[in-house]
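Entry 14. Structure prediction run on the chain below.
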Amino acid sequence: MEANYSIVIKTNQYAGNFERELCAHLTGIVGECEVGHEYVDEEITTIFEQSIATPADDNGTRRPVGLGSRNEGATGNDVVIYFDSEPTKEQVQIIKERLLTFTTYHPVQFLEFKGIELIEYQRTFISVEL
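Output returned:
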């Protein structure tokens, strides 16, 4: 994990069908795969581009978003947006506001957002003598 923080967006259904599009809509940032590029708003991109992290997924593709099943206690219904630094109040507010408009642009039937959480990742370094 290369991110220091993440915002976890809890939904009522499997998020693997829309997590990259949602991240693009909320932050204006897409991964190397370019999925969701049609949802990017350049004004939003400038607000997030310096703070979004893009760790590599299981296939080595760098993405700013993943499924919550990689985080303890989270499920595949959770969308995880990675940050290098703690999101600002402005960024969190933008995400909350844009959640309300996502299904206008990307029709996901019966999608409900159940809440968001901020997670800070703590790292522990252990020295092992060989």
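Helices lie at 19-27, 42-48, 89-99, 102-105.
Filed with the rest of this week's runs.
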